[in-house]
Amino acid sequence: MRPVVREVLATAVEALGGEERPGQVAMAEAVTEAFESGQHLLVQAGTGTGKSLGYLVPALLHGRRVVVATATLALQHQLVERDIPRLVEAIGAGAHKDEVDTSYAVLKGRSNYVCLHRIREGVPDDQGALVEVPKGSMAKKVLDLRAWAEQEAETGGSGERDHAPRHTDREWRQVSVNHRECLGAARCPFGQECFVETARELAHRSHLIVTNHSLLAIDAVEGVPMIPDYDAVVVDEAHELVARVTQAATDELAVSDVERASRRSRRHVGESTAADDLADAGDALQLAMDESSPGRFDEIPEQVKDALVLVRDAARAVLSAYPREQEGPSDGEVDAGRTQARGMVQEVFVTAERMAADSDADVLWLSEGGDRIPPRLCVAPLQVWSQMRDKLLSEKTAVFTSATLMLGGDFSSMAVSIGLKPAERVVEEGEVSPEHPPDALPWRGLDVGSPFDYGRQAILYVARHLPTPGRDGLGKAQLDEIVELVDAAQGRTLGLFSSRRAAETAAEEVRTRLPHLTTLAQGDAQLPELARQFVEDPHTCLFGTLSLWQGLDVPGETCQLVLIDRIPFPRPDDPLMSARQRAADQAGGNGFMQVAATHAALLLAQGAGRLVRTTSDRGVVAVLDPRLVTARYGGFLKASLPPMWTTTDPDVVRQALKRLAGAVG
């Protein structure tokens, strides 16, 4: 099979106007071997390696269905709208076209598709009755979405949110449903046209399915069948997987959720007082939350637990009070308002039951709330590695790939987080292989390198002379350093900050002291608009927080300085991270290194990766936190970064930035 993989890969690369990359070939062969042997594979492929083709070619050549799961919509779009169609076209013109099943499909969660029943029959109001015409400021947007949906239905479109006219989350909820609100294809009058059902039918007929981490987690980890049976999975952007699986398994409960479920149920439960009892339980939950402090509950306060039990029992009583479907309308029509109201109650019941169980496997906390967002109770799994090991890795062959998998210079941290054990790693040729027990899950780690010469293209500057960052935000010394570096670079700066306040403070300082430059801060406009302005004018700075650390691709002279204000450790009061760190300590490990330092290493590597995106990019990654070179854990963090030339001399860096700025004019 490997010669065929090499031939098809070469054909595809030539057809796409590229050139053969040793790392891409090595990756394709390793993925093929993983599929054939059933051994899991972690493959680190640096930016510019061409890793998409490195796994797509083996996936299409594999004899059974393969799933590709991504973390971001951007990569999903790239795969479905560019990489896969071009690869299929190249294969169709090659010598092996008859050997390859090139059918593929995209599969997303239900709420990513418009619901024909909702746009044609209306949206439930506060009492659960269907209202046909939307009112208020969002009416025109909703009507535009409805018109688009009908056009999609007429033309055989996908009905996916990504293709819809511009809209907000609130507007989209008026034309979509979640899995609990759905009537089901067999009972919906528009089931034959349903976009979700059409996407699933196409997936059942396809060899390659592209989906996202969350849907993969719901299907494999939570056991809710969402994806047709498959043999192997490729997890791209695998550094995000643990966070996405955790997010998919996290539930929230607000008092407003309880009140809405109660209100919408009243018209459906006859003379029963169950809906009123649920409202009373919501009031009890409100009182309990008001008397509790935000943050993680090491032990659930008695009043909160009692209120959760009340909500759970009241929701169960409401569910029992709903008439059975055969007791519904005599003409056989499905009451959509009732189905959706019942779904709300079911959601409240399941969440309250989970929270009241007070399981050691879960972490429960009370959020602080914020602008127009009331406090809510949140519950998340303490860890997800065991679920992934038992329910995904034990059943399927998995390939994990990303530009950032080796933290501290080794695959072990990432392997452990996804459910693989360091002792299960298959050693390379010439090394002594340990004997694995029967239940072992053998895996290999492969770093195929990068086409970039980081030692020549990039400088890592650590501002050793600055004070250690404190909790009070940026001080005068840090702000002076930022201004001097930005001035030397003449703009061309991407600032990655640990908080929105720090980003805004730095932006205001640069605007004041360097008024000839354009300085943008996250929140000034939507991210795509900010990115467009940043690219169009090199003499621009863009300062922001987490979404810029991982979600921005700006090659060229636009970005020659990446500023990182501090090592991105999780906040000490982060409920889930602090719980995981404590659990690691209690298990005899080093919670700080296993949780906080690993989290920081991953984000640092992602942030530093914004600098060099092509072989011609040049620039500086400036870390304004001296702990990177003074603290004991600094070596672990630095080993997670690309191998850049390193200095702590501010004069050397400023001169380098001035030369780069002069070279591009």
TrEMBL record:
PROSITE patterns: HELICASE_ATP_BIND_2. It holds the Pfam family DEAD. GO terms for biological process: nucleobase-containing compound metabolic process. Keywords: ATP-binding, Helicase, Hydrolase, Nucleotide-binding. Its EC number is 5.6.2.3. Its cofactor is [4Fe-4S] cluster. Residues 10-285 form the Helicase ATP-binding domain. It catalyses: ATP + H2O = ADP + phosphate + H(+). GO terms for molecular function: 5'-3' DNA helicase activity; ATP binding; hydrolase activity, acting on acid anhydrides, in phosphorus-containing anhydrides; nucleic acid binding. The keyword Hydrolase applies. It comes from the Bacteria. Belongs to the helicase family. DinG subfamily. This is ATP-dependent helicase DinG. It comes from Nocardioides islandensis.
